[in-house]
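User: Teach me something about this protein's shape.
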Amino acid sequence: MIYIMLLTVFVALLTILALIIYAFNKLPRSYFFFLFFTLITSLIVALKIYERNFKLSVVPDALQVSSIAYSKEESWGFGPGGNEAGIRVYPLSEKISNQIKELGIEYFETLPANENQKNRRWRGIYDSWSETPVKEEQYWKYDEGGRLDVYDYICRYGFCINIDEDVLRQATDIINSEGSYYAYGRIGLIVISPREKIVLYVYNG
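Assistant: First, the predicted structure itself:
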């Protein structure tokens, strides 16, 4: 996921560099510096918007998530041989939380399709929704206390991140307690907690 963002930045920088070289040779210096400042500011704003939309795209549209409360992500290397790990926390509205509490697992079994799914590729698509606690998998086993550790999932490939202690504590409690719903996507695990009014997304790769 991080790789797509880096590639976009690289292409944008090449385009801006070409425009700067052309403008430097053609425009008066006052116009040149104004254009330079405008281009850089526009690039920063565009990248921030792209990053936000990219991070939101893993959440199904029906959940009406529009902001990110917490995000910690890292990448190592680039391309197929690279690795990445991360966790995101999204606020969930009281309206949607109450709908989920009322319908339970049925809410997720009848989720409508996302808009513009073609542009999002696999992001935001999940099958086989289940109720928490999350069940252990082949590569994600219970600890001695019979609980799953969020770090064990995120750091599965040996690449780890430092997560805020309060966020980690809350995430660990949610995946090991009843009352939430989860599903695996092509990449990552999404957990919706109507009790805490948040959406968790964790991934490794």
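Now, about its shape. The first strand starts at residue 70 and ends at 76. Strands lie at 70-76, 83-91, 130-131, 181-184, 189-193, 198-204. If you'd like, I can walk through any region in more detail.
User: That's plenty for now, thanks!
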